Amino acid sequence: MSHKLLGIVVGVMLVALTPAAHATEVVVDQQNKEFSQKSISIKVGDSVKFVNKDDMVHDVHSTSDGYDFDLGAQKPGSETSYTFDKPGKVKVRCAIHPKMKLEVTVE
Amino acid sequence: MYPRTLGVAVLGTLAVAAAALLSIGQTSVAGVGQPTGETLPGAAAFMAEYQRPSWIPFPEDNPHSGAKEQLGRALYFDPRLSRSNMQSCSSCHNPSLAWGDGLPKGVGDHMNPLGRRSPTILNSAWAEAFMWDGRFETLEQQALGPIQSGVEMNMSLTDLIPKLQAVEEYRQMFAAAFDGNPEITGEKIAMAIATYERTVVSGSAPFDRWIAGDAGAISDSAQRGFVLFNGKANCAACHSGWRFTDDSFHDIGLPGDDIGRGKQLPNIEKMQHAFKTPGLRNIDRRYPYMHDGSVATLESVIEHYNTGGMQRPSLSDEMKPLGLTVQEEADLVAFLKTLTSEDPPVQYVTLPR
Q: Is the predicted pLDDT of residue B173 greater than 60, yes or no?
């Protein structure tokens, strides 16, 4: 591979990887029927990894404007990630346990 | 939260009731034998999770005041809040019937049969997500729901507000409750009713005396039931804490077309046929059971859970066949019967005219 071609390939890879390189993953635990944080602030493109540390099923979802999602039944010990792809204030709840509340500010 | 200490003012009567219970000594628990006066091995590990709170929480945007509580109490018992002038909040949430109505399903305007059982309002101050399907986030929102519902009290706020405004005594009560301003609004009606409802707390039961250290307050059978409740029978997975609910929503595998919370959250599989976990305080006075009143006795409730419920994709992961013996089922019922408090009668209100 020529130096020129290699340069192009590396350049393309860097561009492709740029968003991922800046994206952050925040970990939120589900334990004792609570989220480990009550509120978090993240950037557009960041993701949140929800880790179920309880011995029961949880179901993370939101019905906030622009963020109507459901991560489905999440078994004990499992992890599920969700990427927040637009700005907004997102109310995240467990559909099963509505006392579990997390406010996500996406900037 | 603005805490209000229990047993001081509104609930002074409950404190009196608790004292009366103590002076009586052992309250009989029907058909479950006598206590040995010793806490069973295995029970102690769970007891700390069932301590009663010493105060009532009130939200910051609707703190408690005596005037607001008094207004809310009048509104709660006033049938003029219905279009027919025949139904008050207390018609379906009746203190004489453990703040429910004792019917399999509620009855609304013009004797209209409703789709679900009227839940108790006991201990609502601590609750989260109201109605069987959780469609109201706050008690304030909930308070206005049945009033305005066409099939329940059928009373629009547009009509209710001038109706109340025409009652001089109500104007005075609203002024006393809301900074001297006699204007009546839907928001104020909701705030007052919710404030009163938050003061409706189940009193001390034999179970509470046992938790507080009176090892002889409940029978051995009830203690075995408590251990089962927290263990093999898996009840405490949802019926946890001193109110015996975590306010969660589950499909417990009862037959029927009512999809419950599925109507609010149609895309979530586990919310189809899911209903709110009710608290279990005073539960032996609150039959018939379940969201549809389809189960007549506590024994039948336990039997339902023992089978594991109807299999379908939405069935709660907490629902599994339990393999309880006849004795274990009886022990669970004996335990549930210790959750009933002997509260003083609630006095009728002289309504503003």
A: yes
**Complex-level ipTM:** 0.85
Q: CA B151, CA B106: separation in Å to the nearest integer? A: 10
**Count of domains observed in chain A:** 1
Q: B218 and B338 in contact (C-beta within 8 Å)?
A: yes
Answer yes or no: do B268 and A63 touch at CB < 8 A. no
CB contact under 8 A, B246 and A95: no
As for how many domains chain B has, the answer is 2
Place of tokens 């927290």: B230
Residues of B in contact with A33 (CB under 8 A): 246, 248
B105 & B155 share domain: yes
Say whether residue B135 is in contact with chain A using an 8 A CB cutoff.
no
CA angle at B337 for the pair B332 and B340, rounded to the nearest 5°: 145
In terms of domains, do B239 and B147 share one? no
Strand partners, A50: A28, A80
Those residues with Cβ within 8 angstroms of residue B324's Cβ, 6 or more apart along the chain or in another chain: B228, B232, B233, B302, B306, B332
Average pLDDT over residues B198-227: 96
**Would B161 be classed as within a structural domain?**
yes
Query: What CATH number did the domain enclosing A31 receive?
Result: 2.60.40.420
The pLDDT value given to residue B26: 29
pLDDT tier at B35, thresholds 50, 70, 90: low
Parent domain of A81: 24-106
Q: How far apart are CA B252 and CA B238, in angstroms?
A: 11
Q: What 8-state DSSP symbol labels residue B103?
A: S
Local structure of residue B319 (DSSP, 8 states): -
- Domain span including residue B193: 66-198
Task: Report which residue type is found at B98.
Answer: A
Mark whether B219 and B301 lie in a shared domain. yes
Q: What parts of chain A have a pLDDT lower than 70?
A: 1-21
Backbone torsions φ then ψ of B110, nearest 5 degrees? 55, 40
